[in-house]
Fold:
Amino acid sequence: MSQEPNYENLYSFLAGEFAEADFEGKSDTEVALGCTNPELAQWHRTIIAEGRFALASPSFPWKSIGDYANRHFVTEEAARTWLTEILDLLESSVEQL
Structure:
């Protein structure tokens, strides 16, 4: 019996940082680049790893990604593109810490 992948850190990040960003007038880029700090660097690396694992999964949880981030994706490909961009931004920001 296979176990469901654990994306707890990724989902927590998406819900905590992106769910209300529209209401706060922040772009996704601003959120991804503005949320890093040295104390959270290891957690952000975990989020990046979980996100990359999810993207590589044949059962990519695109609807859950949209739900946690409060985004509506019409297709799986749109969700993949969005998450890839967010992870790339986050990764570049963490690398500069």
